[in-house]
From TrEMBL:
Listed GO biological process terms: phosphorelay signal transduction system
UniProt key word Transferase: no
InterPro entries reported for this sequence: CheY-like_superfamily, Sig_transdc_resp-reg_receiver
Annotated Response regulatory domain residues: 7-126
Modified residues (4-aspartylphosphate): D62
Protein's name according to its UniProt entry: Chemotaxis protein CheY
Lineage top rank: taxon: Bacteria
Keywords carried by this UniProt record: Phosphoprotein
Gene3D superfamilies: 3.40.50.2300
Length: 136
């Protein structure tokens, strides 16, 4: 059995939103992928630290985070970080998917999160096949 893991950063200022995302995606989003270790971030500085140090394989950002939302953060990271890890943005309304596209996110999740759709979306992004994916 392989000990390889994938490190996913989950960002939201609200711990319950981070927990919801982690629970929906699960510890192994697909059988062909390694187990997931999560890093929780409640502040932008934590996200920037992890990305700058190259310690995460994927980011899941809460589009409703305060004071800076995940969509703005996604756009900033994609514009400023060479070889930025893939980003999934979680939005509250299906109508906000276009904003997540503007943010250059690799995929979008819509609350309430469906565990099957969330795991499938994350798996697709981790496999590198992520043209903009929308599951809702």
């Amino acid at each position: 059995m392989s000990t390889q893991t994938t490190k996913i950063l989950v960002f939201s200022h609200r711990p319950e939103v981070r927990e919801t995302i982690i629970t929906a995606v699960g510890r192994r989003p697909a059988p062909d992928l390694p187990r997931v270790d999560y890093v929780e971030a409640g502040a932008i500085a934590d996200v920037l630290y992890e990305v700058d140090n190259g310690t995460v394989d994927l980011l899941i950002l809460d589009g409703e985070a305060q004071p800076t939302g995940g969509m703005g953060l996604s756009r900033q990271l994609k514009d400023e970080i060479t070889n930025c890890p893939p980003i999934v943005v979680a939005v509250r309304r299906k109508d906000d998917r276009w904003l997540a596209t503007w943010s250059q996110a690799d995929a979008v999740l819509v609350h309430p999160l469906d565990p099957l759709a969330a795991a499938e979306t994350v798996a697709e992004v981790l496999r590198g096949s992520a043209l903009p994916v929308v599951k809702g």
